[in-house]
Specification:
Elements: E1 2-3, E2 8-18, H1 46-49, E3 56-57, H2 63-66, E4 76-90, E5 94-98, E6 103-113, H3 126-129, H4 139-145, E7 150-154, H5 157-160, E8 170-183, E9 187-191, E10 196-206, H6 232-238, E11 243-247, H7 250-253, E12 263-272
Antiparallel strand pairs: 1-3, 2-4, 4-8, 5-7, 6-8, 8-12, 9-11, 10-12
Amino acid sequence: MVSSGAGKVISVVKANYGRLDGKKCSRGRSRAQLTCLLPPVFTPHISIHRCNGKRRCNLKASNSVFGDPCRGTYKYLEVDFDDRKKRVTCEGKTAKLRCGAGRVISVVKANYGRLDGKKCSRGRSRAQLGNVRCKNPAKKVAQRCNGKRRCNLRASNSVFGDPCRGTYKYLEVDFVCKSDVTCEGKTAKLRCSAGKVISVVKANYGRVDGNKCAGRRPRAQLRNIRCKNPAKKVAQKCNGKRRCNIKASNSVFGDPCRGTYKYLEVDFVCQGEKHAGL
């Protein structure tokens, strides 16, 4: 079962049905059933994507659903998904997108118009609500908000144009909060508000995703997505501080995978400062 928290919906990032690890789902299984470790095949199967937009989703990990990619091997279904947030902002109001410390906005989709007769309908005439085919992808939301922790954007014709005159519109944004990612050669800047300090949950310097920090890079530099190198120096340097800068570079973390263009990915939370007693 794939499940998301209250007020959030599932957004599948990637999924694989097979075996990439000899230890997962290995209890009571023979060696012969665990030795076939295939390269990752990220399943674009419709059965996975039917979970998108739902809060809860049940899906059987079986050959009858996904086929058999490696006969004789005991397989498992591994799914990475984000909790997608939804924000609906009525025309004339301001949309406020927010992520917690150590996370940044990544817009999944946005529309300024009207696709539903009930949303933002209070006090409006039927004539203003009748057109529910007013589809207008609001690309400016991603352009202005991606990569930021907080972003305000007004739901108005002056920002997005008027896709359906006479219709009372709303801005609907689906977004996820992703880990803060710093491309190799750049500097990660971890920040907490006054009275709170950084506490690193996990950090990796390497590459476990082919899409992150991929702009203008040759395929050869992005192919290795098994470059997992826990970056302990982030916690050592930054824990307990309100602000911390650390460079995503081989000189700091070493080179875990030569020839691969790497990035530093950090998950952290902001905690209340601890004061020693007198």
